[in-house]
Amino acid sequence: MDVDELYGLPLDEFVPARNALARELRNSGRREDAAEVAALRKPSVAAWAVNQLVRTQRRAVAELFEAGDGLRDAHDHVMRGSGDGSSLRDAVEGERGAVESLVGAARGLLTSDGHELSPTIIDRVADTLHAAALDGDARAQVQNGRLERELRHVGLGMAVSSGAAPAPAPRAPARARRGRSASAGEAQQRAEDRAAAERAAREQAEARASARATEREARRRLERAQRAANAAAERRERAAQALEAAEAELADAQSEVDEAQAQLHEAERAIRDLAG
Question: Three-state SS across 54-90?
């Protein structure tokens, strides 16, 4: 086993396998390598989940990186005044869809004790995927499948507007205004595009928060329903066992009745024979 394979193991096997690899390296005289391996930290649950996605969902991860590049390009174009809000919104939706596709795959992963990943862990996985899509340093940490801790991305430099209108700029003299009418129009267009970028970023954040809240409530409802179903199944099992025991007792009692009736008929026949 090598270091790369450690990060593909089930999470509860990481530490024993790491220690065994370090011991093997020390025994073979590679003490520096052994020390480096022994210092490796066990990944957090969210980081472990991302590592598994990188290793098993290569095509979807490549699409995530492509969508992230597209979103960064669209944002840069808007900031330079050469793009528009519509293109940016499409890029935002593309990146969001790529993340959600991988998050769906993450929900199929199980913890070491066989449970699904919690909503909190899923949120951290999503944040890490967004970071890998949009930040070069984060992507470098994620793409080799050896991440130790989850990541978080703070944004693309798009400030979320508070909704207040900007203060009007001082009016220039009439001659200057006429000479600058074309550039003023371009500036207005850039301002509108920046506003569209801010709206797209705000809508993305609001939609993500709403989706996560809905998911958390759905999971809580599912957990409650699952507990109720498990309790009902246990009651049904106990009732089935009680029914089986009662049927066995009934069968024994019926056998006793049959034997008693046979004995009675035999006795009655004997009496009739003696009387005759």
Answer: HHHCHHHHHHHHHHHHHHHHHHHHHHHCCCCHHHHHH
* Rounded CA Rg of the chain: 35
> Measured on CA atoms in the order 204, 207, 213, 217, is the torsion positive or negative?
negative
Range of the domain at 16: 3-38
- Is 163 a residue whose pLDDT tops 80? no
In a domain, 134, yes or no: yes
Same domain as 143, residue 84 = yes
Cα–Cα dist 123/117, whole Å: 10
Among 12, 20, 209, 167, which Cα is nearest to 3's? 20
* Distance from C-alpha of 66 to C-alpha of 133, rounded to nearest angstrom: 8
Looking at the fold, whether 120 and 74 belong to one and the same domain comes out as yes
| 97 within some domain | yes
Q: What is the pLDDT of residue 208?
A: 60
Residue 262 falls inside a structural domain: no
The residue among 201 and 95 whose pLDDT is bigger is: 95
How do residues 113-159 score in pLDDT, each as one tens digit? 778 899 999 999 999 999 999 999 999 999 999 999 999 876 654 33
Give the span between the Cα atoms of 205 and 253, in whole angstroms.
71
Nearest to 159 by CA among 113, 201, 222, 103: 201
